[in-house]
Amino acid sequence: MEISSSQNGSIMWFFRDKGFDDKSIHEMFKKCKRLEGVHRDRASENWAYLRTIGIQDRKIPSIVTKCPKILALGLNEKIVPMVQCLATLGTKPSEVASAIAKFPHILSHSVEEKLCPLLAFFQALGVPEKQLGKVILVNPRLISYSIESKLTQIVDFLASLGFTREGMIGKVLQKYPFIMGYSVDKRLRPTSEFLKLIGLTEQDLQKVAMNFPEVFCRDANKILSPNVAYLKRRGFEDGQIAALVSGYPPILIKSIKNSLEPRIRFLVEVMKRDINEVVNYPDFFRCGLKKTLELRQKLLEQRKIELDWQCVECAFSDTPFQDIYETNLALEVRMLAIRDKRRGMLSVAEMRKPGQKAFGRG
After folding, report:
1. CA-CA distance, 245 to 358, in Å (whole number)?
2. Which keywords belong to this entry (predicted)?
């Protein structure tokens, strides 16, 4: 498309003054025919307004490139009302700026025709009023989806998993707003069928959706299936894999090279544990390798401590010790688990209660 000076020389010079090259300018005119009739003053005013709401100068060119229509919109008629409405949903001014940077097209939608009906729809699903803003601002692209043809399909799919109690679907949405952007037929349903195929029950699927809904959004063939195949190669049986996935669903979407393989190698080669032991403690794969597993294993080795697997679970987890395992020794390891997040590794003397011996129940 060739843009002549008669179409609007002033807007062309505006773009050039802002550092856009001719190729980028041509692409923006292709995206938005309305630019041809936009006066430089309006474009400048809208550009300046984006700066006043906290959008960094370096990000504005990218925003305009994605949605050049922003420069053609009426500032007080369209942009300001949307920004003001979004501001009432956020807790920090930066959240609105961040949402616009993620999805600039949100400014081109109507508050009355799109945003308000969307908020009402989510509230009806059980999303608390105070959480509505988080859902929209985390995934502003939601405003572009049709409630009837898109969002309702997702709701029906979640209901088919057994989410029938009031508010349950709203909790899934709060946990992972991006789930509403995926296709039921191309992604969510095939993934749920794959999870059933490897042995997960309906109750298991509900746990996955409630706690780790992002698992449903991954491609079963490209991501989940290779992870299952890897676990089988390491010697896990079908029932054990189902138990691992049910206990810690992200095991299916973790990187084999950077996450699963290093942890299993650490389990077998360093901890000297049978690989099957981890089936009863899937959260092992949640633990950070460097900051948790290696650090605490080093402490145990320094103290020449050998724990049975149930005590290992306590030592390496973030869950409280059961009384049966709360020996002074285990308590020291547990206190390290709690404190190392804030202070780094503590000496045994710091961790020990006053007057308490290192070993036994004294």
Report:
1. 38
2. Transcription, Transcription regulation, Transcription termination, Transit peptide
Rounded CA-CA distance 66/27 in Å is 10
Both structure tokens of 329:
């020794």
**Under 8 Å between Cβ of 55 and 97:** yes
Residues 345, 298 contacting (CB under 8 angstroms)? no
| Alpha carbons 216 and 221: distance in angstroms, whole number | 12
What per-residue confidence (pLDDT) applies to 247?
A: 93
The count of other CB atoms within 10 Å of the CB of residue 261 is 14
CATH 1.25.70.10 in the chain: give the residue spans. 182-286
Residue 346 pLDDT exceeds 80: no
Q: What is the per-residue pLDDT across 74-86, written as a single tens digit (0 to 9) for each?
A: 999 999 999 999 9
- Tell the burial category of 234 from Cβ atoms under 10 Å away from its Cβ (0-12, 13-18, 19+): middle
**Mean of pLDDT values over 18-39:** 92
Residue closest to 89 by CA, chosen among 142, 155, 150, 147: 142
Is the full-model pTM beyond 0.70? yes
Task: Name the superfamily (CATH) of residues 182-286.
Answer: Transcription termination factor 3, mitochondrial (1.25.70.10)
Classify residue 320 by its DSSP letter.
P
Candidates 151, 167, 128, 140; CA nearest to 85 is 140
Orientation of helix 189-197 relative to helix 202-211, angle to 10°: 130
Pick the closest to residue 194 from 271, 112, 252 (CA basis).
252
Name every residue whose Cβ is closer than 8 Å to that of residue 197 and which is 6 or more positions away in sequence: none
pLDDT digits (tens, 9 = 90+) for 115-145: 999 999 999 999 998 899 999 999 999 999 9
**DSSP-derived secondary structure for 52-95:** HTT--TTTHHHHHHH-GGGGGS-IIIIIHHHHHHHHHH-SSHHH
